[in-house]
Amino acid sequence: MKVTFADIQKAREHLKGVISPTEMTHSISASKLINQDAANAETEIYFKYENTQRTGSFKFRGAYNKISNLTPEEKARGVVASSAGNHAQGVALSATIAGVQATIVMPENASINKAAATRSYGANVVLHGEIYDEAFEHAQKLEKEKGFTFVHPYQDPYVIAGQGTIGIEILEKVPDLDTVIVPIGGGGLISGIALAVKTIRPNIRVIGVQSDRSPGMAYMFRKETLAHIKRTPTIADGIAIKNPSPTMYENFISKYVDEVVTVSDDEIAEAIVFLMERTKAVSEGSGAAAMAAIMNRPLKLGKKCCVIISGGNIDLNIVSKIIDRGQILRGRLCELSVIVDDLPGNLNRLTEAIASQKANILEVRHDRVSQGLSLRETRIDFVLETTSIEHVERIKKALESTGAKICLKET
């Protein structure tokens, strides 16, 4: 499979007037955060907001470039795709704009909101299988039975070229950029961007980021064995690919990508909260992976670094959980428990100790029957609004000074 810079330039012409050339801005807050690291003390961080692209992610670029390049006969037969979210919406809207009928196969447990959004863009949604792999197999079956054209989410020259238009936009905004940080799922996004930016500016560094729960491409990049890798659920479901593609690695990632790192769900949650609070950007898990990497990994970023926020289609059902988790990791929310004698006045002494440290009590729960408690003891659980990890430690010391025993760390 071959994609050239000329293909990306052609894709840009196809996409004019259809996609949104998304904003790229310098982030003072992110730059200050990264500047705390001596190695990146002078780094300026820029965000490329693909979360504001039509359908909420970069996927629309590649999908439209693919469908707009179909022959009249292929368009008449219709297209089929498999996806649990962003690719589905990108294909659905692209097909509607091009006047093509689209069938999207989604897993039966796909987000209700994402399935509804895909239908709203004009596609016929088929729910099949418990996992993405089963939906993918069914889509391929429909391709053969119905004569549809299969729109692959990443392993397609037109799709890669479409995603590569982001790279051109980035360097038009900041021509002397030193580093680009890009999330990796199947590899279509980073392949297109890396090809584009390396063609224009050969010395630029391209760093890929994967979830540590689906790290296949990172292992392949480091030439490590994949045998023991087992995919597990992650909040970065948009980049959760079970098996990395040797084709994508050999043709693009091994040639144009300088480094690949992984990040944890906790780190991604912290990044989502930072983006929401400091830049007012709503990002899904996969969209915040690149930010998680620069916050938590010792990367060589240079003086100017662009972070790709690849998508914003976060499931509203888990937003509050992610925010709470991110706040806990940043020391802005604390859950802790103490054991005290079950005597009048003890709760008052505990709350006074907390108040003396200027923390806000959000919840209080009593537990007098848990295993391990004596008949004269009670366990009291607190949820506190705090300002930092150091603040939490001061609160613990204040509680212990009352005679309370801290029995559970914040989680």
Q: Which helices and strands occur, and which strands form pairs?
A:
Elements: H1 5-15, E1 24-27, H2 28-35, E2 44-49, H3 59-68, H4 72-77, E3 79-82, H5 86-98, E4 102-106, H6 112-120, E5 124-127, H7 132-146, E6 149-150, H8 157-173, E7 179-183, H9 188-200, E8 205-211, H10 216-221, H11 246-256, E9 259-263, H12 265-279, H13 289-296, E10 304-309, H14 316-329, E11 333-341, H15 346-356, E12 360-367, E13 377-385, H16 389-400, E14 405-408
Parallel strand pairs: 2-10, 3-4, 3-6, 4-5, 7-8, 7-10, 8-9
Antiparallel strand pairs: 1-2, 11-13, 11-14, 12-13
Helix pairs in contact: 1-8, 3-5, 3-8, 5-6, 8-9, 9-11, 12-13, 12-14
Q: In words, what does this structure look like?
A:
- This protein has 411 residues and is α/β, with parallel strands linked by helices.
- 44% of the residues lie in helices and 19% in strands.
- The chain is built from 16 helices and 14 strands.
- It has 3 domains: 5-57 and 157-326, 3-Layer(aba) Sandwich (Rossmann fold), CATH 3.40.50.1100; 65-150, Rossmann fold (3-Layer(aba) Sandwich); 331-408, 2-Layer Sandwich (Alpha-Beta Plaits), CATH 3.30.70.
- The radius of gyration is 24 Å and the shape is globular.
- It has helices at residues 5-15, 28-35, 59-68, 72-77, 86-98, 112-120, 132-146, 157-173, 188-200, 216-221, 246-256, 265-279, 289-296, 316-329, 346-356, 389-400; strands at 24-27, 44-49, 79-82, 102-106, 124-127, 149-150, 179-183, 205-211, 259-263, 304-309, 333-341, 360-367, 377-385, 405-408.
- The strands form 3 sheets. Strands 1-2-10-7-8-9 form a 6-stranded mixed sheet, with helices on both faces. Strands 5-4-3-6 form a 4-stranded parallel sheet, sandwiched between helices.
- The model has no long low-confidence stretch (mean pLDDT 92).
- Helix 12 crosses helix 13 (289-296).
- The protein starts with a helix and ends with a strand.
- The longest helix is centred in the middle third of the chain and has 17 residues, at 157-173.
